[in-house]
Amino acid sequence: MASGASTSARLWTRVLRRQLPTSLWGRALLIIVLPIALMQVAVTWAFFEAHWETVTARLSEGLAGDVAWAVDSYLDEPTPEHLVEITDQAQIMQLSVALREGGTLPTRDRPAFFVALDRSLDNALSDRLDPQPFWFDTTRYPNHVEIQVQVEAGVLRFIAPRERAFATRGHIFILWLGGATILLTAIAIVFIRNQVRAIERLADAAEAFGKGEEDVAFKPHGAREVRRAATAFLSMRERIQRYIDQRTILLASVSHDLRTPLTRLKLELALAEPSTRTDAMSRDLSEMEHMIDEYLAFAEGEVGELPVTVDVTALAETAAADARRLGADVLLELESGLDLIARFGALRRALTNLVDNAASHGRAVRISSRTLKSGGVEIAVEDDGPGIEPDSYDEAFMPFSRLDPSRNQNRKGVGLGLAIARDLVRSHGGDITLDRSDLGGLKAVIRLPR
């Protein structure tokens, strides 16, 4: 039994968590508004229970007493003359009395919106008029209450001001309470919104930096803790940017220093007598130059390029044309009108690396693109080559990894093609994943935010 109750409690807890807001804005607002609303409900309930209903009951008892007095007086002497005297005396008590001879009580009730009002008056009249039949209506007249009592001659009809039966100022208290709740909620919304906006701007700046963009207008603001986090982010961004710049300058310098002796060696080989040895040396120099270019591309990652609107269809068609020149049979399955904000050169290099890799290891290549449900863009490059074993997918992205047993990859290069491609895509806030293609080979999927 205890186990069933525990399971039910966990189920209700999961249901409640699904209904609660997931954003910081929603949760902060709930933390402020929910206690205010509960407090207002408790105060309203206490007011009606301890004050309003008590005062209403006392007023109803007073009115019922006056009606009972008038009925008893008329029953003691049911003459027109005595009724006139009763009417005169009742006017002093703000009570109108009239006899409808031969009449009967209505059979249709008209309950009030607040049932507690009718209940208080009904209890008071039942106690004072028993056993006389009666009927009352609190809704027909806005400012008055009608009470009818059955007597032998007909029906005694009483009209009394509403404030004689009920505490009519209770709604003013509710209006003030509701107004205060709305005012406090509005103030809470303004303050919470300002604090959450500071966190949202920090998140936007971090996301922009992850895509290779820089939000120069971003400045720390908001609460002290949020400003501290923003200041730490700016310091981290400066350190990372300084490291990237230093790495780029270092690799550019190394590349420049190496190109000079390579150029001299190529010149000396060009002037030397042609032979099998000079041909081999020339091929080695070309391979070294290609390695240097890949090292530099891996280090730079197109850092200095500015983001622009990139037409994915045109980009894929250009990569396909380059692959066709290598002799590959390229099939395009592209979604029309697809574009995104990216650094054109970096994205072109990433896609070209994937397409060239597919064309080098397969005869047929397929490039497809589509819009993701999340709003991002997906570009897939597939081939019909030997593919890669699933447990080697992570290793394929490691710099200088060749995977010779599976695809004889990077026979000319140094194993940086996939590493450079993923580095460039991740600099845009996206990623590259590998999978088995329907064509039988490898499938590389680029997913980028828009």
Describe the structure.
This protein has twelve helices and eleven strands. It is of the alpha+beta class. The two termini are 53 Å apart. The model is unreliable at 405-411 (pLDDT under 50). The strands form three sheets. The chain has a five-stranded mixed β-sheet, covered by helices on one side. It has a four-stranded antiparallel β-sheet with strand order 1-4-3-2. The radius of gyration is 44 Å and the shape is rod-shaped. Helix content is 58%, strand content 15%.
Helix-strand blueprint:
Blueprint: H1 2-19, H2 24-76, H3 80-92, E1 96-101, H4 115-129, E2 134-137, E3 144-151, E4 154-161, H5 170-210, H6 224-271, H7 276-300, E5 308-311, H8 312-325, E6 329-333, E7 339-342, H9 344-361, E8 364-371, E9 377-383, H10 393-396, H11 404-407, H12 417-426, E10 431-436, E11 442-448
Parallel strand pairs: 6-8
Antiparallel strand pairs: 1-4, 2-3, 3-4, 5-7, 8-9, 9-11, 10-11
Helix pairs in contact: 2-3, 2-4, 2-5, 5-6, 6-7, 8-9, 9-12
